[in-house]
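PROTEIN DESIGN WORKSHEET
SECTION A - STRUCTURE
LENGTH: 507
TOKENS:
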């Protein structure tokens, strides 16, 4: 089927009517095409700035259904006035094997010329997209650097008010007294050296201090509030705190007078994980802070210390991490640590649906990580005891043979270097040059042959072990080796309400 598309945004005296467009489209039909079914799609009073047009959408639907083989239009801009949209539409045509013709512009995608124009349009469209992205980034950067509200989720403790700053329409943060009262409680409680996020969560619960936005407190939400500089009365010490982390600070140090809150911008998750803050920037805001800088900094230093400790423990918290499952709700149980009276930490597994969301009753007993790991360790030992692997000594490549091959390879490379020096000498005659080139080629082939032989021998190398029991290796394994074995052998370790567990093996 041949599709003819016509669009007219508004009726004007000098505008080309729908009927005239259709007439010119039919004029470019080839003789054999006139015998085929022709369907006309029309959009009267529709803008070309977007693709939200009834006739156009119907045509695209028919194209994707495979019933259209060719589209003819009066001019390119009848399809779309947006270059990005137009290129995207042409891509849809191409993906569905549809030719496209403009009757007034000699544009035909079935021709070499039309294909060239299409590729050029794609290049310009990509350039336009990149330019728009860069303009948006620049605008975002400029707005953020003068402390304007940049959108996103409302900060707990503040409401948003429409405002004009430096002639720019924006929003400013205004205090929400009831929420800020809870925020102040959170900072004051956590600034005590003997508290933790877990104990803060418990304190909020027993004091019936619930979020006023209808959500629930979690450790991650509390951490997000505490580390946010929007609440602090930013002073010289706050300036130094971020400067020492490598953060780019937009405002002059003199403006950090302990009055205004601040915002930090950048790829926080990735950079903080690497302890790299160099791509981030701190900007003073237009609203006044509410938390004294000394209290805020105590909380930051505490979070930083926990983050360092967390990084040292998180990946090595347990070799069975990611395998422990709560039987009641099916959630993966996580490892947490509690501080003992002697200053050391003890790890245990908890169900996050019980500790965070309060929607699972969890296990009745405390599942200490050391106890569970010792049990799993013995179970894996017994499992591995069932297997024996025979390792045969490799006779292909001994240390002595390897040294001989390397020595011969070095000899060839030295000869190649000498030949290169001689060939580069200007007084070498033609006959000698030909002989030297032949010799260089011979050495090159010999070198490649040795390298291939060496690679083949290396791939045949096997551990020199005789009937070594795998369970003995398990006893000598380090953390990473145990974790790797655990990933292979165990599918899940299910913890039941009474504290008992079941191991589901992969093999």
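SECTION B - SEQUENCE
RESIDUE ASSIGNMENT:
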């Amino acid at each position: 089927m041949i599709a003819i598309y016509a669009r007219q945004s508004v009726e004007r005296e000098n505008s080309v009517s729908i009927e005239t467009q259709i007439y010119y489209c039919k004029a470019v039909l080839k003789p054999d095409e006139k015998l085929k079914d022709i369907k006309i799609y029309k959009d009267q009073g529709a803008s070309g700035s977007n693709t939200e047009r009834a006739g156009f959408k119907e045509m695209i639907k028919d194209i994707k259904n495979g019933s259209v083989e060719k589209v003819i239009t009066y001019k390119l801009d009848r399809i779309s006035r947006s270059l990005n949209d137009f290129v995207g539409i042409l891509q849809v045509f191409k993906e569905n094997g549809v030719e496209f013709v403009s009757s007034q512009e000699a544009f035909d995608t079935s021709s070499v010329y039309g294909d060239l124009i299409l590729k050029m349009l794609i290049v310009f469209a990509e350039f336009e997209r990149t330019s728009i992205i860069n303009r948006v980034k620049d605008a975002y950067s400029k707005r953020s650097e003068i402390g304007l509200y940049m959108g996103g989720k409302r900060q707990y403790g503040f409401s948003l008010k429409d405002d004009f700053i430096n002639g720019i329409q924006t929003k400013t943060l205004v205090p929400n007294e009831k929420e800020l009262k809870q925020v102040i409680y959170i900072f004051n409680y956590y600034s005590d050296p003997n508290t933790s996020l877990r104990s803060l969560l418990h304190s909020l619960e027993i004091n019936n201090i619930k979020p006023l936005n209808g959500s629930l407190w979690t450790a991650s939400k509390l951490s997000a509030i505490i580390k946010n500089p929007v609440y602090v009365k930013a002073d010289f010490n706050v300036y130094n705190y971020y400067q020492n982390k490598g953060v780019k600070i937009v405002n002059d140090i003199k403006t950090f007078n302990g009055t205004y809150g601040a915002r930090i911008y950048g790829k926080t998750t990735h950079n903080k994980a690497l302890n790299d803050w160099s791509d981030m920037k701190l900007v003073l805001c237009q609203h006044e802070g509410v938390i004294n800088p000394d209290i805020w900094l105590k909380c930051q230093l505490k979070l930083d210390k926990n983050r360092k400790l967390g990084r040292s423990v998180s990946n090595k918290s347990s070799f069975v991490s990611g395998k422990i499952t709560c039987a009641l709700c099916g959630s993966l149980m996580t490892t947490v640590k509690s501080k003992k009276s002697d200053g050391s930490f003890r790890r245990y597994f908890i169900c996050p649906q019980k500790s965070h969301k309060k929607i699972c009753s969890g296990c009745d007993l405390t599942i200490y990580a050391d106890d569970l790991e010792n049990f799993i360790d013995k179970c894996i030992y017994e499992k591995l005891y069932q297997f024996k692997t025979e390792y045969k000594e490799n006779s292909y490549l001994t240390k002595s043979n390897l040294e001989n091959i390397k020595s011969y390879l070095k000899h060839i490379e030295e000869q190649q270097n000498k030949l290169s020096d001689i060939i580069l000498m200007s007084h070498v005659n033609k006959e000698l040059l030909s002989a030297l080139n032949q010799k260089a080629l011979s050495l090159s082939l010999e070198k490649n042959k040795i390298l291939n032989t060496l690679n083949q021998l290396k791939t045949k190398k096997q551990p020199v072990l005789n009937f070594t029991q795998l369970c003995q290796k398990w006893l000598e394994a380090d953390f990473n080796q145990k974790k790797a074995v655990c990933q292979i052998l165990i599918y899940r370790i299910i913890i039941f309400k009474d504290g008992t567990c079941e191991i589901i093996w992969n093999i």
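SECTION C - NOTES
The longest helix spans residues 112-145.
Residues 399-459 form one domain.
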